[in-house]
Amino acid sequence: xxxxxxxxxxxxxxxxxxxxxxxxxxxxxxxxxxxxxxxxxxxxxxxxxxxxxxxxxxxxxxxxxxxxxxxxxxxxxxxxxxxxxxxxxxxxxxxxx
Length: 97
Description:
This is Polymerase nucleotidyl transferase domain-containing protein. The chain is α+β, with helices and mostly antiparallel strands. Helices cover about 35% and strands about 25% of the residues.
């Protein structure tokens, strides 16, 4: 998927992603952000939740992103305090919260 298409789709669903799933930030990273992704490659996203994320919320968000937002496979990575940050990636951050 092209970077511009992925970002446009994520921006269009920004409010729903924040409200329904408690997402503070999504970070598009990997081959998609560099516009080097193969057509069948998953879209790589780093997610930062408000508060402690539950397994169910993580899985539900992944399904929503794949089925309704991006309509493509998603590799969803969880950002945890003090570990992985957007600065670790070539990225485009989308603040949703």
